[in-house]
Amino acid sequence: MYVSRGGAIGDDVVWAAPMLLPALVALLCLAVAAIAWIDLRHGIIPDWLNLTVFALGLIDALARGGASAAVDAAWQAAAIGAITWLLRRFYFAIRKTQGLGLGDVKLLAAATAWIGVGGITLMLLVAALTALTAAGVIQMAGQPMTRRSAIPFGPFLAIGLLATLALQHYGCCFE
After folding, report:
1. What's the number of domains the chain is made of?
2. How confident is the model over 12-42, as pLDDT tens digits?
3. 64, part of any domain
């Protein structure tokens, strides 16, 4: 089922399939669960999972707002990816160690297709707070945590993405 919106070329159809959007969110949940699991077990986030999150976000944007919304989501994702990659390089130049994996950078870019630039701050806040909580729990459990200790950040970014998405669509903020 679709409804015609009019407007620019390629913007004349907005999908209104009632089961499409919940199916996209369900697939997103599966993708970020796989990302969290793989990052915890192996310390990597596979490109194909990041691409899946990105593609699902573009389909969501297309379904909600047409082709122009999907193009806008792609540009926002590219901008966040570039900024995050530059911050990663800057951190390495100063500290001579990687503070953020490239998979995390790609996941932030892919997540932007879902939550937009405005949602990135909340996503990062939730991710950082949950990561700090996990580090505290690890410390209290008797495992030493030093400046060189590494914790995979992908699972916390996944939590941040889902929390931000829930707040945007069922809450009140950061659209």
Report:
1. 1
2. 445 556 678 899 999 999 999 999 999 999 9
3. yes
Distances (CA, A) of 60 to 39, 73, 106: 25, 10, 18
Say how many Å lie between the first and final Cα of the chain, rounded: 26
The tens digit of pLDDT for each residue in 34-86 reads 999 999 999 999 999 999 999 999 999 999 889 999 999 999 999 999 999 99
Task: Find, among 58, 69, 151, the residue nearest to 113 by Cα.
Answer: 58
Residue 175 resides in a domain: no
Say if CB 175 and CB 116 are below 8 A apart: yes
Task: Determine the structural domain holding residue 127 and report its residue range.
Answer: 19-170
Cβ-proximal residues to 37 (8 Å cutoff; 6+ apart), any chain: none
